[in-house]
Amino acid sequence: MLGVAYLSYLLAEMVHFSGIISIIGCGIVQAHYASKNISEKSKTTVKYFTKMVSAVCDTVIFLFLGMVLVDDQHIWHTGFVLSATFLCLLVRFATVFFLTFCANKLERTHCINEEEQFIIAYGGLRGAVAFSLVIMLDETEHKNLFITATLFIILFTVFVQGATIKPLVKLLKIRRQTVKNTSMFTEVNTKLLDHVMAGVEEVTGDHGGNYWKQLLFYYNSKYLKKWLQCKSTESNLTRVYTRMMLEDHFAHLYGPAAAIEDHKPLLLNKVSEEESDDILEVLPPVTEEEEEDGDEMTIDQPPQQEAQEQEEIIVPQGRRPSAKFDLQDPEEGRPLKSKR
């Protein structure tokens, strides 16, 4: 992951493109695909190693910024510095308002109002990235002027905008982020609304945000994941959890539980033992009480054939399952009687 990020930076510099923008784009792609290709231990190692390197680099950059700030080689031009600051703010506001306008056209469930747009634009602070870019300029007679203007913009945005952003948030009554407890109902409801809205947009011919989202998900799962992502353990883990839930469900049945216990390998064929051994090893062992509860009901069943196909348990309609419920073998046509 680190090698690919550094390679993207070198390739961008070779074609005279912004290396920082290249790293940002590479990080967006790696956050979605590369993290799925490594183990949890490697993911933890990369996460904290990059945090450590980031903290060290920020310290070095701001230390160097302080050394340059007290340098005596600055070139001050009031008109250029003020116009650069004004244009920086103007471009920031114009970009934010344009992007939020496009987002509001696509996303109709929650639109970004004018107060939120203003806070987003006003909160754009300049710091290490702007300083690093101006330091990387070629040595010309105007480089010191650019450095002086950049330092003024950094100080203005950090101390003026940064100090007044909190009172403005309270004044404009901007909704703050709240910690929400996620639940299965919320996740299912969100997915259901997304699919329903995508279907409505497809029927009406109005291609909104849900349509494009579903389209991206389709091409991502059909093509991009096959090329950029190895086989994930998520599907295996899901099947293991399905197996565990089915076993727990069978354990709480009454009469048919004994018969179903013998048919469980056929019903749980979606998960092989090899796939679930690594995860089931870490589960707590079965207690003696659970074993006694499981041994309360047994059943007499004829031996299975070697090439036996998947069998179905036929439950007669109109009869309630009980401890003496008769189950019919679909192949041999004789009942399987359970006994306590």
TrEMBL record:
Belongs to the monovalent cation:proton antiporter 1 (CPA1) transporter (TC 2.A.36) family. It holds the Pfam family Na_H_Exchanger. The chain crosses the membrane at residues 6-29, 49-69, 75-99, 119-137, 149-169. InterPro entries: Cation/H_exchanger_CPA1, Cation/H_exchanger_TM, NaH_exchanger. It is found in: Membrane. GO terms for biological process: regulation of intracellular pH; sodium ion import across plasma membrane. This is Sodium/hydrogen exchanger. It is a multi-pass membrane protein. Residues 2-170 form the Cation/H+ exchanger transmembrane domain. GO terms for cellular component: plasma membrane. Residues 282-340 are annotated as: Disordered. Residues 287-298 have a biased composition (Acidic residues). Residues 331-340 have a biased composition (Basic and acidic residues). One of its GO terms (molecular function) is potassium:proton antiporter activity. It comes from the Eukaryota. Keywords: Antiport, Ion transport, Membrane, Sodium, Sodium transport, Transmembrane, Transmembrane helix, Transport. Residues 299-317 have a biased composition (Low complexity). The keyword Repeat does not apply.
